[in-house]
Write a structure and sequence with these properties.
mainly alpha; about 55% helix; 34 helices
Length: about 625
């Protein structure tokens, strides 16, 4: 059984398909197979599960089954529906489960008993599925769920500040994944639950807490250019008589970003000059790291840069994603930097996530120094990902256009050549594991489009040879869309005929989860399904996705619901609630004529009074809440 450290590559089953392929598999069998058959449906069911994930397919197909069997009133989804999910501990697989349970709860029009949600949450926690447990506590309608969960997403870690080692690891991992990596699909209730624009995290950290942590050194130069307040905050930190350890790390990384990894821009020249004038505030360790990157020294103890290696890899990734690094001379510089890392003992197991950018750097370096790179890779055998990287490098090819280049899949490769290389790397591999490997190559190391199309060609060839299944022209086109549209992918959402013609409510609900319920409305053949879908969509948007809607009442509903159920991700967010109230007194007076809502707000503020400090000195707010300020030290009502 094949396994990767950073994304599940387990085969979905040792045998093909479900006992009874569902409606989606049957739909694609008619769409793809030249001669539809039961065997063909089983193969397609397995293939869809391999591409979308076992939990996604279970949700999609079971939703359709439940709706088809529903008579139009009463419970649609039974309580034991949760038992069909497979909790893997892998956030890529598991974070769909909370969304599925939420959709099924809304389908039933009333929640199950709170003990049911607590039991399911306990199962997620017991399996080590931290991200899914957090999302469940955020989305499910039961009291005190959040108290059981310690995990918080990277956006919340930035919001709170004071990063511990785990918070730092989470943020760096997500930044290494960039725009194309398979991130856990949270899509939670608050804007901090999700971080689709990961490069903004350093900027947000600086704005909230100051230039005080190495994360801040990863801020993009263009953001310093156009954000005067951001620039001022950095300059103030650099002007201090001495620097804390966090500022030293941030200053070193920002210096490398501006002076080594990026071309100097006029808007950042002032910051770079200030850094140069203040380098004496750095420790010898930081100076040596700078000198290593500016060719002032040839060697450095790897342990000196080990703590910063993920920060440096992010700077490399950012540089690879800039147009200027498609230019040959700039690419040569980046190859040299990575060569220097390998020469001092870089270990891939120290890198939290390896995706397309680092794969491309290794590929470029192998062109120049194949023997040295292969020897270095051999020394990384304790990293299980290295086999996946070797396969990705092998099937890549570089195309030069004058002084520009592009790295993509080698379109001249034959399927037999790819299979031989897979067995050279992994040993004897069954055909369905080969297919699973190719699907994950598309998801992690390549951008989709034409690259995924070539991988789907390999899959098509293998299935035809091994199973005597003949697909029509729709298969490869649809297969690309499905692989590119799986749930952690933020850059592509499935559309077109493959989607619109399926008339599959489970399939459509799945992609509305991915769109945060902002997708177009599709008319189903059956009025029952259309009405049910519209009802679910409206209810979820109204109660949970208020950060996408400019409606004060809906925002207040969410905050009060979380207060009343004791499910706020951080108690400090009550300050945001107070800010909403103070900025909208005229708009909320009618809302709070409901005394029950005012009581929830009053109780929540008083229970968290120690967090508020000066935030609660506003006499208008005190009067609005009907709180009697008896003394400076005691507030009661």
């Amino acid at each position: 059984m094949l396994k990767s450290l950073q994304v599940s590559t387990r085969a979905t089953t040792n045998e093909l398909g479900f006992n009874k392929p569902g409606a989606l598999a049957q739909y694609f069998a008619k769409r793809w197979l030249i001669e539809p058959s039961t065997k063909g449906e089983e193969i397609i069911a397995w293939l869809l599960e391999a591409a979308l994930g076992k939990n996604a397919m279970y949700f999609i197909e079971k939703t359709k089954e439940y709706v088809d069997a529903w008579g139009g009133s009463g419970e649609i989804v039974p309580e034991n529906a949760f038992d069909g999910f497979v909790i893997t501990g892998d956030p890529i697989e598991d974070t769909l489960i909370p969304h599925a349970v939420l959709v099924w709860t809304c389908m039933n029009d009333r929640p199950w008993g709170e003990e049911v949600y607590h039991r399911w949450l306990d199962e997620l926690l017991a399996a080590g599925s931290a991200e899914a447990a957090y999302l469940a506590a955020s989305l499910w309608p039961a009291h005190d769920l959040m108290e059981k969960v310690t995990y918080r997403p990277p956006g919340w870690r930035v919001y709170q500040g004071q990063l511990d080692a785990e918070g730092e690891r989470l943020i760096l991992t997500e930044m290494l994944k960039g725009y194309h990596g398979p991130r856990a699909s949270l899509y939670g209730s608050f804007e901090y639950d999700d971080a689709p624009f990961l490069r903004k995290l350093p900027r947000e950290y600086i704005k909230r807490h100051g230039f005080i942590h190495p994360i801040c050194g990863l801020v993009w130069p263009t953001e310093i250019e156009w954000d005067g307040d951001l620039k001022k905050c950095i300059q103030e930190a650099l002007a201090a008589p001495s620097w804390s350890e966090g500022v030293k790390g941030a200053a070193m990384l920002l210096y490398l970003s501006l002076n080594v990894f990026n071309e100097l821009r006029e808007g950042t020249r002032g910051i770079l000059n200030t850094l140069k004038q203040n380098l004496f505030k750095l420790d010898e360790r930081h100076i040596n790291i700078i000198n290593f990157h500016t060719d002032k020294i040839d060697k450095i103890d790897y342990n000196l840069i080990k703590d910063y290696i993920n920060y440096l890899m992010i700077l490399c990734n950012n540089a690879m994603n800039k147009i200027s690094f498609l230019i040959e001379n700039r690419n040569s510089f980046l190859i040299k930097i990575f060569r220097n890392y390998t020469s001092v003992g870089l270990k891939t197991k120290d890198i939290l996530y390896i995706g397309k950018e680092i794969k491309n750097i290794i590929f470029n370096l192998m062109i120049e120094e194949k023997d040295k790179v292969e020897l270095w890779i051999k020394n990384q055998e304790d990293d299980l990902r290295i086999k996946d990287i070797l396969l990705a490098v092998y099937i890549s090819k570089r195309f030069n256009y004058e002084d520009l280049y592009n790295i993509t899949i080698d379109k001249e490769l034959k399927t037999e050549q790819v299979e031989r290389k897979i067995e050279d790397i992994y040993g004897k591999v069954k055909y369905f594991d080969k297919i699973f490997l190719l699907i994950n190559q598309a998801k992690i190391y390549f951008n989709g489009g034409g690259e995924s199309y070539k991988l789907c060609n390999f899959i098509d060839d293998i299935l035809k040879r091994e199973l005597r299944i003949n697909f029509n022209f729709n298969f490869r086109e649809d297969c690309v869309k499905i692989i590119n549209g799986w749930h952690p992918s933020r850059s592509r959402i499935l559309e077109g005929d493959i989607f619109l013609e399926s008339n599959h409510i489970g399939f459509y609900l799945y992609y509305n989860i991915l769109r945060e319920w902002t997708g177009p409305i599709i008319n189903f053949d059956k009025e029952k399904e259309l009405n049910l879908f519209l009802y679910i969509r409206k209810k979820i948007i109204k109660n949970l996705y208020i950060h996408t809607i400019n409606n004060i009442d809906l925002k207040l509903n969410l905050y009060l619901n979380k207060l009343e159920s004791n499910n706020l991700p951080f108690k400090e967010i009550i300050i945001d609630l107070i800010n909403i109230i103070e900025n909208n007194y005229d708009k909320i007076s009618e809302y709070f004529k409901d005394e029950s809502k005012l009581k929830i707000l009053r109780k929540g503020i008083l229970y968290n009074i120690d967090l508020l400090g000066g935030e609660f000195m506003n006499s208008r707010l005190i009067d609005f809440l009907g709180i009697d300020n008896k003394s400076k030290n005691m507030i009661i009502y």
